[in-house]
Design goal:
Chain lengths: 345, 343
């Protein structure tokens, strides 16, 4: 240790010190990056709140939507070990299925929509959830039987993503759709923050669903089995866990969360066939930032990525928002590939 | 008849250009198992690099801005496209090649999308969303303008042939066999004393350079490029469909896949024009559906593609066998050296 400190003193810059630390003492480096990133994110959040609170609030709203998508993505990634490139397009399908099922008219309190939207969300959740299970049986199950590598699954998911988008385009065309037209005034809150009632609905729905997912993961047998399989597949198998059942539940949960995320995104802005694909990079950035397989990680990552994306618009062109997510992703991969909460490999 | 020939020539030029991309992707995915989902990024870098070097200086004013504009020859543009694309591969490869394979896929999608945004937003660089026009066609003065496409077809086929031979030589060398070994089992390759990261980087740069050349060939054929060209569907996914359908790990398969998928893509377009209005307006979505189903269907039903990978890729074993077969007194006697079974 003393020798290490002496050599660190000789190193000219912080960077060379870090590179040396990574090589000589990976455990210390790991702890340092863990603490360092938390401090960095905390400092960034304080800075963002001081500079522009409104952008932080918008970031939290979009972060809620990304979080619902990313939790599903991270569960699938953790349990089935492959990157599901169709996750964004599953969100998009959910938004359009809700659009199909949505009966407009009436409104709940100050919201722009009525109980028809609750019903539409349920329809979207069930159809995307069950649809994911069916697609798993048709596409991923045969690939599993054959023992294909994870990359083959990822390519198949890409093919499915294109297929979903084509089907939605065939039915609804490329023009944007909107659930409820009209102008919905925003509320003025203290500190100059403006928020629409619909946006409070988005945050509330997300909080409710995340609580439900936590109850399911940490208080039920199937949740325990899911976490076990995510941690260690072989160990889970010898403990008598039925992988097929766990996979079915993972798709049900991941699919239905994706559907809600899509509907909420549609409420926040509008519906377009590429809405899901354009969210794919923030989804993956959130998942990897938080650590694959970790729901808390997905939630934290989604908030960090979305707030950073919104706050960045004070300085750079909004067209580069997707690049902000990407740069966060690359930095995380370079410094700490396992993410904030991910397991050591 | 005249029209049909012109159509077929244009079809062959496009197919040859797609085949160059499919070959580049085959180096990445087919031979090394590098999971590149950002072909569009290398495509864009190749196309824009060659465009800004070979085109005349920008007129300026309201509508035309881009850097460089040196009116350099086509060959210089092609070489620069390959170098720029290779340099991009090094930059992406350093942080991602040593990580899990799917991280590279996510990173390459991100690079492709970020580069497209840069091309769209930075008007001074490559003229933003308006795109660049007036990219010169090589050897344009040599023939009658109405026969020019025939000449370009020859150029495209020559470039394709050079790329094909270069990859075949590389893959059938000891270097190529290390790549395949890494694809099959990284740990074993590393245990045999091969630097996995170095070989992966070499393959990544090599494939990216080929994609850069493909991008330049595209730019000089269309003579205009804009950020729309590099949407993920056209820039990346159709090329994946070509490689998977043709047969990843087989260069002939990659070329066949490019011609087949592009044939179906343009063929369905032609067919839709003779169909009732419902199909005509939606033809693009039907083709999109088709590309998606083709990828999934090929993976499920014929994962090896039209032309499966050859088990043995040594340049020398085949020659030795043929020579031995000629010398062998009783014809039909087996001359396969058991040591070379998996060569």
């Amino acid at each position: 240790m003393a020798e290490l400190v002496a050599r660190a003193g000789k190193a000219r810059t912080l960077l060379t010190t870090l590179v040396m630390l990574r090589r000589e003492r990976p455990d210390l480096f790991d702890a340092a990056t863990g603490i360092g990133l938390w401090v960095l994110f905390g400092a960034f959040l304080i800075f963002a709140v001081i500079t522009d609170l409104q952008l932080v609030v918008v970031g939290i709203i979009l972060g809620s939507i990304v979080a619902l998508g990313a939790i599903g993505l991270t569960l699938v990634y953790g349990i089935m070990k492959f990157a599901n490139f169709a996750h964004g397009d599953m969100m998009m399908c959910g938004a359009y299925l809700a659009f199909f099922a949505f009966i407009s008219g009436g409104s709940i309190g100050p919201l722009s929509f009525g109980y028809g939207m609750i019903l539409a969300i349920l329809v979207a959740m069930i159809s995307v959830g069950v649809g994911s299970v069916v697609i798993d049986r048709l596409v991923y199950h045969p690939l599993r039987q054959r023992g294909s590598g994870v990359v083959v699954f990822a390519i198949a998911s890409l093919g499915l993503a294109i297929t979903f988008r084509a089907l939605i385009l065939l039915w609804w065309g490329p023009q944007p759709q909107i659930y409820v037209t009209g102008i919905h005034p925003a509320w003025d809150l203290p500190f100059g923050v403006k928020i629409k009632p619909d946006q409070i609905f988005i945050i509330a729905t997300t909080l409710f669903l995340i609580a439900a997912v936590y109850v399911l993961l940490f208080r039920t047998r199937i949740g325990k089995a899911m976490r076990a399989m995510s941690d260690n597949l072989e160990l889970a198998r010898v403990s008598g866990i039925n992988p097929d059942q766990v996979i079915m539940w993972t798709w049900l949960i991941g699919g239905s969360l994706a559907a809600v995320a899509g509907v909420l995104l549609g409420i926040q802005s509008q519906l377009t066939p590429d809405m899901g694909f354009s969210l794919l990079l923030p989804l993956f950035a959130a998942t990897i930032l938080g650590g694959i397989g970790s729901p808390h990680g997905a939630l934290t990552g989604a908030m960090v990525v979305s707030i950073a994306q919104q706050v960045s618009t004070s300085w750079i062109d909004p067209g580069y928002k997707v690049a902000v997510a990407f740069i966060l992703l690359i930095l995380m991969l370079a410094v700490r590939p396992r993410g904030l909460f991910g397991m050591k490999t | 008849m005249e029209g049909l020939i012109a159509y077929l020539i244009s079809f062959a030029i496009f197919s040859a250009i797609w085949a160059i991309f499919a070959l580049g992707l085959n180096v990445h995915w087919g031979y090394t198992g590098i999971f590149n989902f950002g072909v569009a990024g290398f495509f864009a870098v190749g196309a824009y690099t060659s465009a800004i070097l070979t085109t005349e200086p920008a007129a300026g004013g309201t509508y035309q801005h881009y850097i460089a504009g040196y009116s350099l020859p086509f060959v210089v543009g092609l070489a620069a496209a390959a170098l720029a694309s290779g340099a991009l591969a090094i930059l992406i490869g350093i942080p991602t090649l040593r990580l899990r394979e799917d991280y590279l896929a996510i990173a390459t999608i991100g690079v492709a999308e970020t580069l497209r945004r840069v091309a769209m937003n930075e008007d001074w660089l490559v003229n933003g969303t308006r795109g660049m026009i007036g990219i010169p066609a090589p050897l344009f003065d040599l023939v009658d303008p109405k026969d020019y496409n025939r000449l370009y077809l020859v150029i495209a086929l020559v470039v394709l042939a050079i790329v094909y031979v270069a990859i075949e030589r590389g893959i059938r060398s000891p270097w190529g066999r290390v790549l395949r070994a890494i694809r099959e089992d990284e740990t074993t390759a590393a245990a045999s004393g091969k630097s996995v990261t170095a070989f992966r980087m070499q393959s990544f740069v090599f494939g990216a350079m080929i994609m850069g050349i493909g991008g330049a060939m595209y730019a000089h054929y269309i003579r205009a490029v804009s950020p729309d060209t590099f949407e993920p569907l056209f820039g990346t996914f159709i090329i994946w469909a070509m490689l998977i359908v043709g047969g990843s790990g087989n260069n002939k398969g990659a070329i066949v896949g490019a011609f087949v998928v592009w044939g179906i893509w343009t063929g369905t377009g032609e067919m839709a024009q003779r169909m009732p209005g419902f199909f005509e307006v939606r033809v693009h979505y039907f083709r999109l559906l088709f590309v998606g189903l083709l990828i999934v269907g090929a993976l499920l039903l014929r994962p090896q593609g039209i032309l499966p990978e050859e088990r043995r890729v040594s340049l020398f074993v085949g020659r030795k066998e043929k020579a031995e077969a000629r010398e062998a007194k009783p014809p039909g006697q087996s001359t396969v050296d058991p040591r070379d079974e998996d060569g």
